[in-house]
Write a structure and sequence with these properties.
Order of helices and strands: HEHEHEHEHEHEHHEHHHE
Helix content: 40-55%
Oligomer: single chain
Structural class: alpha/beta
Number of helices: 11
Strand order of the largest sheet: 7-5-6-4-1-2-3-8
CATH topology of the largest domain: Spore Coat Polysaccharide Biosynthesis Protein SpsA, Chain A
Largest sheet: 8 strands, mixed
Number of domains: 2
CATH class of the largest domain: Alpha Beta
Number of strands: 8
Distance between the termini: 20 Å
CATH architecture of the largest domain: Alpha-Beta Complex
């Protein structure tokens, strides 16, 4: 096995983006090694520490010492986010296929077998593990429903599915990583490159964390970035709003003008004028805000901001 690893003839690279995961990554590493150990597959484990605030990096260093043959470690120089940390792992991977899994043990590593079997059977480029029994708070369920509705409108039903537990063809993953920007959302970008995507049901376990790394504000911000980065939907909605209100205002204006000219009826209405002005001003400010968001994203993409920076590597 050592010769195969040295020649980069690795079957599976397992990428684990880590953020404040010191309480779970040792157990996760042991379970991953226990899963792959009896099998014929060669593998490597790549832990990408997204500048954790706890002792995650120290744990990764210890894991490297204990399992030098299997473990690699990257520590980013600042917190770039889960998707960018995953892309950093893509670049460093040597396997024929890549498996991504979170650091909180919400998925039992034994279920990797389901992804492998489905890929062998379907020859798909991406296999997602979809949670069949996930439990979330009412607020998160409501937020997810809103996100799914928006995603269906923007990208179609395929964009609604997906998770961070996936098996990916390495060539596809590296292509995405090398072309990535700091606004990347991996699961949306996959849809730009391939339709060879399949799904398998997996069991969801309770997280080892007492609190999610994603706050509600973070999820709202992420959804906003996904919508602006992956589609022109907001701009199209502005166009439709503009056409609609132009038509309505033209009709109202024609109605009152005809009453004034044809019937000679004066049209009082200071209140209605003020309301119309305030409503129109609010709509204009909203439109300018959306345009400003697009301009800010374009500026960020054009200023050559680095996608990520690796502070330490072992």
């Amino acid at each position: 096995m050592e010769d195969l690893l040295q020649e980069h003839k690795i079957d599976y690279s397992v990428i684990i983006p880590v953020y404040n995961g010191e309480g779970s990554i040792e157990e996760l590493c042991d379970k991953l090694i226990s899963f792959f150990g009896p099998l014929e597959y060669t593998f490597e484990l790549i832990f990408v520490d997204d500048y954790s605030k706890d002792g995650s990096w120290a744990k990764i260093i210890n894991l490297k010492k204990e399992h030098a043959l299997f473990v690699k470690g990257l520590r980013l120089s600042k917190n770039f986010g889960q998707h960018i940390a995953t892309c950093a792992g893509f670049i460093k991977s040597s396997g024929k296929f890549i498996i991504t899994i979170d650091d909180d043990l919400e998925v039992n590593p034994q279920q990797i077998q389901l992804l492998i079997e489905e890929q062998i059977k379907s020859k798909a480029e991406i296999v997602y593990g979809i949670y069949s029994n996930i439990e979330r708070s009412l607020i998160r369920k409501l937020f997810k429903l809103i996100y799914q509705t928006i995603a269906k409108i923007i990208e179609g039903s395929g964009s609604v599915k997906g998770s961070s537990f996936r098996l990916i063809n390495t060539q596809l993953a590296k292509k995405i990583a090398t072309e990535a920007t700091h606004l990347i959302f991996i699961d949306e970008v996959f849809l730009w490159y391939t339709n060879a995507i399949v799904y398998v049901d997996v069991k969801h376990n309770k997280s080892k964390r007492s609190k999610s790394n994603y706050s509600l504000i973070s999820l709202i911000r992420l959804t906003n970035d996904v919508v602006l980065y992956s589609s022109l939907f907001p701009l199209k909605m502005i166009k439709y709003f503009g056409f609609f209100f132009s038509f309505v205002n033209f009709g109202i204006g024609f109605f009152y003008l005809s009453r004034k000219i044809i019937q000679g009826i004066a049209v009082p209405g200071y209140t209605s004028i003020i309301v119309s002005i305030l409503f129109s001003s609010g709509l204009i400010i909203f439109i300018l805000g959306v345009l400003g968001e697009y301009l800010s994203k374009m500026f960020q993409l054009m200023n050559n901001r680095p996608v990520y920076s690796i502070g330490e590597e072992i």
